[in-house]
Specification:
The chain is mostly helical. It contains eight helices and no strands.
Length: 179
């Protein structure tokens, strides 16, 4: 799959718009989720996802498969877009965001998801940024240790050890709460 993505990225660099469409289709949900788990704001996640693909479109000439996978490259653009956003934005939620409810929603299901989301958000918010990002990249973004290493500049071995220790700590903290 990675080889296919590299071929698509190379075709995109050469001007093949269908290659861009395929990569966009493959990554738009993943990038949205990446942003969502860091902002918990639907509108902002949609905006930043669009920004990521616009930046990628402008920067595709700089994609170098020798320096890493396409997945790492697009996630790096997303990480930078988030950094840029938080560096320049005044953080506030418009009142309209509170009314962003689908007319087809199931209130019981939505309430369960909200409770679970709040629980996960609470756990993640107590972790240092670096630890939280590692868990999100590994579990929700489904990035390999190699890809996370490319994004963070750390070694795969140190990331595996850090992840293992974090998961063990979370499990032990959870078992204490259940007693």
């Amino acid at each position: 799959m990675e080889a296919d993505e590299i071929q698509l990225a190379i075709a995109w660099k050469a001007g093949d718009s269908r290659a861009f469409e395929q990569l966009y289709s493959q990554y738009v949900k993943k990038i949205f989720d990446y942003v969502w788990y860091r902002t918990f704001n639907k509108t902002l996640s949609e905006d930043l996802t669009s920004t990521v693909f616009l930046k990628a479109f402008d920067a595709v000439a700089g994609f170098d498969p020798a320096r890493g996978s396409f997945k790492s490259w697009i996630y790096r653009i997303a990480a930078n877009a988030l950094i840029d956003h938080y560096r320049t934005a005044k953080i506030h939620d418009p009142i309209e965001a509170a009314f962003d409810v689908s007319s087809k929603s199931d209130p019981n299901h939505d309430a369960d998801l909200a409770l679970l989301s709040d629980y996960v958000h609470d756990i993640l918010s107590k972790l240092p940024n670096e630890s939280r990002d590692l868990i999100i990249m590994r579990l929700w973004d489904d990035l390999s240790y190699k890809q996370i290493a490319e994004l963070t500049g750390k070694t795969e071995a140190s990331l595996k050890m850090q992840f293992s220790r974090l998961m063990e700590k979370l499990r032990s903290d959870q078992s204490l709460k259940q007693q």
